[in-house]
Amino acid sequence: MRSAPFLPARADTSRSHGLGARLAAWLAERIREVERSVGRLPSIAVFVDGDHRIDPLVDSVGPILAEHNVRIVGCHDGRVVGYEQEVRVFDIQYIKGLEFEGVFLVATDVLAERLPDLFERYLYVGITRAATFLGVTCNKRLPPALEFVRSFFADAKWD
Q1: Model confidence over 92-137: pLDDT tens digits?
Q2: How far apart are CA 112 and CA 116, in angstroms?
Q3: How far apart are CA 132 and CA 102, in angstroms?
Q4: What is the tally of helices (H) and strands (E) in the chain?
């Protein structure tokens, strides 16, 4: 297994921790970078904090990816739907046992604030789903539990 490069983002977000335009553009571009580096779209998953965040993410990122003939689908209630050639979006609580070439964890700081007792467990399960590529985003700041990996982030502009 090759080491997974960390791809950070600091995102503008909407009021309900939804996807801001800046984060949607960042996520779409990182997905395209993974596709270009592999030469095809590998299996990619995006993990969010709650089923209610799946559709807003798909709705925000979908049109951008569609311009490049990449499809994104929501996987509600832990159901694995779609095809490997599609980017799939899951609630992080339903991902144990799955593996993808690329994984993006969205709004890790929100998850850390909302579920402090489960955060490290969900983080571990989420990170270990990535075979090659890993992206992590935060709405405001890197959670303290991830401070030890700060130096591995590329092009980070942290406050």
Answers
A1: 988 888 899 999 999 999 999 999 999 999 989 989 999 999 999 9
A2: 5
A3: 6
A4: 4, 6
Q: Which residues contact 93 (CB under 8 A, 6 or more apart)?
A: 78, 122
Segments in 11-157 forming alpha helices (H): 21-38, 54-66, 108-114, 119-127
Identify the pLDDT of residue 16: 36
CA 152-155-99 angle, 5° bins: 55
Tell me which amino acid residue 41 is: L
CATH number at 6-143: 3.40.50.300
83, 53, 112, 141 alpha-carbon torsion, rounded to 10°: 100
Residue type, 61: V
Per-domain residue ranges of the chain = 6-143
Separation of alpha carbons 54 and 56, rounded Å: 6
List phi, psi (to 5°) of 91.
-70, 130
pLDDT in tens, 57-79: 999 999 999 999 999 999 998 88
**Residue 111's closest CA among 89, 139, 152, 148?**
139
Strands 100-105, 87-91: pairing kind: unpaired
